[in-house]
């Protein structure tokens, strides 16, 4: 890896936990590798952001992370101030969530742009979206030129599960020039 530095081995909480209640904040993470982070009871094994902000991950490698919801978790606080998540030229590999979104978990009103990113062996053991899971999403989502390979969800959405705020995705949703290889979801049926 040609990264500036790598961070390894933290199993107690999110490495980066940001809450922004007032004013827009920008957090950019570039040229970094994160290996072996998180715990099955932690939201956002590597990064957990809540509030009104722009989070950008560029040339970031996230490997072997465990969390309850996503190696990266983004949560909005209000519907009027929508955060933005941008992921470009990155790798998410061997990430596991005990609930949903092995690699990325989105809560409420979030705008998402993902480009030229690999999601390999992302797993949601107890929920939806092997690589990407959303709950009550009403932002704009654009995923382009990315690869989802060997992703698994115990319920629905082997690679992505997007649940809108009114049981339908609000905003726009674009999948452009992506590849989905050997992904699987096991439908959950209650009796």
Topology diagram in text:
Elements lengths: L4 E6 L5 E22 L9 E17 L2 E4 L2 E4 L8 E5 L2 E3 L2 E5 L3 E4 L3 E5 L2 E3 L2 E2 L7 E4 L5 E4 L2 E3 L2 E2 L6 E2 L11 E4 L2 E3 L2 E2 L6
Parallel strand pairs: 1-2, 2-3, 3-5, 3-6, 3-7, 4-8, 5-9, 6-10, 7-11, 8-12, 9-13, 10-14, 11-15, 12-16, 13-17, 14-18, 15-19, 16-20
Keywords:
mainly beta; 20 strands; globular; 15-stranded parallel β-sheet; 5-stranded parallel β-sheet
Task: Describe the protein.
It is built from no helices and 20 strands. The relative contact order is 0.14. The protein starts with a strand and ends in a 6-residue tail after the last strand. It has 191 residues and is an all-beta fold. The protein has a 15-stranded parallel sheet that branches. It has a five-stranded parallel sheet with strand order 4-8-12-16-20, with no helix packed on it.
Structural class: mainly beta
What is the element string, with H for helices and E for strands? EEEEEEEEEEEEEEEEEEEE
Shape: globular
Number of helices: 0
Compact description:
This protein is mostly beta strands.
